[in-house]
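Standup notes, protein team

Yesterday: finished cleaning the Pelosinus propionicus DSM 13327 set.
Today: Helix-turn-helix domain-containing protein structure.
Blockers: none.

Input for Helix-turn-helix domain-containing protein:
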Amino acid sequence: MNVDINELAHYYATIDISIIDVARAIVPPGGRCFGRYTPPFSGIVFPLRGRARMFFNGVPYEMEYGKIFHAGPNMSLDKEVQGRSEWDFMVIHYQTDARVADSFPYALAHFQLESGYNTRINDLLHRLYNSCTTSGKLPELRAKSLFFGIMDEILTSASNRRNEGGQEIVEQAIEFIHSHYMESLTVPMIAGQYNLKSKQFAYLFQKHTGMGPNEYLIEYRIRRAKELLCTTSCSIAEISVCVGYTDPYYFSKLFKKRTGFCPSMMQSCLKENTG
């Protein structure tokens, strides 16, 4: 979703939060986990080292240092480590007054912020991690203070980076892809929506998302195809057309390359598991 930094700052300035915990995990190369859900409270993910791809409610995010990710409660969650390095990350789980969610859409949303290289955020995050391991009212107060210090640093850094330009265009392009992925899209066609040349648009998209526009489109289509295989009885040819590929043979090859399974094999396995 599009994030208004000022509105998000107002949200954190006015809500009453309870920090549930601060956890750290190191996942080995090749690690993956599908079909899970986020906890029944909000979370903020801080990549520290390595790369991973996470899907919140089917939307992919490229997890790497310099980016911060927010996820709402009870969202579908898939994740897999990218590359040959371990993926090291921390996550803050927190809860807000349920009544706030009606006033601020961010409470239950997933979104990404780019803080860039900021050692201050890391320092505050590790202090919060250590503080949450100590019981008592004083550590609880200190934890809230550190949390808001972290959010201040994140939002200030993200605001400064957005002033460099291009963020709004990329966010609009992502929404366009989500609305038109079933059509015959090309990078020049999408770039033309914003009066940009293909190379200029691809540069901005890569800069703000960590992946090229064509790669993002393919990943989103494959994700939607998985959902259709799980939730409908459509044929492979029908699903192929539904996600923007008129040639079911090409779609099947691409699907297998991206997931390791033929769509027909995945569909058969799902039917056996549910039958």
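Follow-up from PR in the comments: The longest helix spans residues 137-162.
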